[in-house]
Amino acid sequence: MPQKAIICTVDVVLLCLRGTVLNVALWRRERAPFEGSPALPGGYIHPEEDVDTLDAASRMLREKTGIASPYLEQLGTFSGASRDPRGWSISIAYYALLPAELIEQEPAPGLVLQAVEQLKGLPFDHKDIVQAAVQRVRNKSSYSSLPVYLCGEQFTLPRLQAVYEAVLGEPINKVSFRRKMEELDMLEAVEGAMETGRANRPAQLYRLKHEFQQCLSVSPRSLTAAAG
Amino acid sequence: MPQKAIICTVDVVLLCLRGTVLNVALWRRERAPFEGSPALPGGYIHPEEDVDTLDAASRMLREKTGIASPYLEQLGTFSGASRDPRGWSISIAYYALLPAELIEQEPAPGLVLQAVEQLKGLPFDHKDIVQAAVQRVRNKSSYSSLPVYLCGEQFTLPRLQAVYEAVLGEPINKVSFRRKMEELDMLEAVEGAMETGRANRPAQLYRLKHEFQQCLSVSPRSLTAAAG
DNA sequence: CAAATAGTGTCTATAAGACATTATTGG
DNA sequence: CCAATAATGTCTTATAGACACTATTTG
């Protein structure tokens, strides 16, 4: 005999970098519970519509932010009797990374960005979910190409290094960083494209190689000495 | 409006090491669908009984194998319209590690161990789930104390090294391995306890320090050069 | 030319692996 | 004493970081 109905939802932690701080996109809830509160974009799974929960997360993103296909990965499942006032619930959480410009240039109505530290007043266990996502991103960034998804399509190496440093929260040796990027073998220089305009030597623009648009490049060793 | 009922289950991938090969514990299903087939121990979440899905997984293990508190961690959630013939379903998968002797000495009825390679005929997407668990264990073992949970309470360093080698599938340099174990700082020698009986120098017995009974020790660097 | 930042060369420090040596048991 | 394996010392190689130097732009 099946169980009493369990509330099945999907939530998405959409992260981007503004300046040097990670921000999460929050969505003003349109219904109870917590109507009007900013919370993670999410909602019920639609079994008739969604082929699986990844598909549901992708739909959630599309509906609430208009964003089509960012880097999107399952984070984990949060569950229990006490996380939702409506009853025993399950939330399958996903996280997504995006260049901040994509949100800032055409902000979806009801969407606000907020720094991931000092989050307060989030409903459900959404604060825990955001913290888990941030930890996952930090950890995965220490040995993979993950942070490139926070950059736009083209970027310079100094810019990418700053993104890594912002995510990891510590400075990285420039020579080592460039050696690692070489080793990860995920970037290609854009022929003849340089970032100019400032009073210094122009920087080469790079882009992600096509084969890494959807999948990460991972290094056998950490980029930095620290780890979690 | 809530969704059409979704089937919510928990499955456990219980792994142990027999000789040098990882085995998974399979449970002969007592009901349809796939009645009689060996499958992952699992079942419906009981909202009245389980405080969350970890608790449900723990109960599943207890009920089907009699095992109380092994290392148990969430693996991920598998979902969709097509994985279960009964309808749209969610399985929150957990994995557990255990010394093989605990299963072999008093085998629960209906439980069989099977090598994780060449699994065939598993129902649902249980083969995918097992593969994901094995990959997780391999990956996590490369930089943490995870494999100690495959050993009994006391073990020698050569034995532990063999366990790591079996899990990772490659030989490890003895000196480097011992340096890493020193660095992980998770073992303590059992005073005066040596493994004797064979025609060679006896080996010191070690055990996990108390503070690592429940949590892992992680290294900033990989144990071996390889990675995933 | 000065200031600023990009990009590279090179030396040093640290970690990993190869290999050899010593230690301790049973037969 | 021999065989076997534990345990450790030490040299070599690989990787990471420090630091300095060159390159190229604007004003």
From TrEMBL, chains A, B:
The UniProt record lists the keyword Hydrolase: yes
GO MF term set: hydrolase activity
Keywords assigned: Hydrolase
PANTHER family: ADP-RIBOSE PYROPHOSPHATASE, SLR1690 PROTEIN
One Pfam short name: WHD_NrtR
Domain NrtR DNA-binding winged helix span(s) in chain numbering: 148-208
Coiled coil regions, renumbered to chain: none
All copies of domain Nudix hydrolase, residue ranges: 20-107
Keyword presence, Iron: no
Protein's name according to its UniProt entry: NUDIX hydrolase
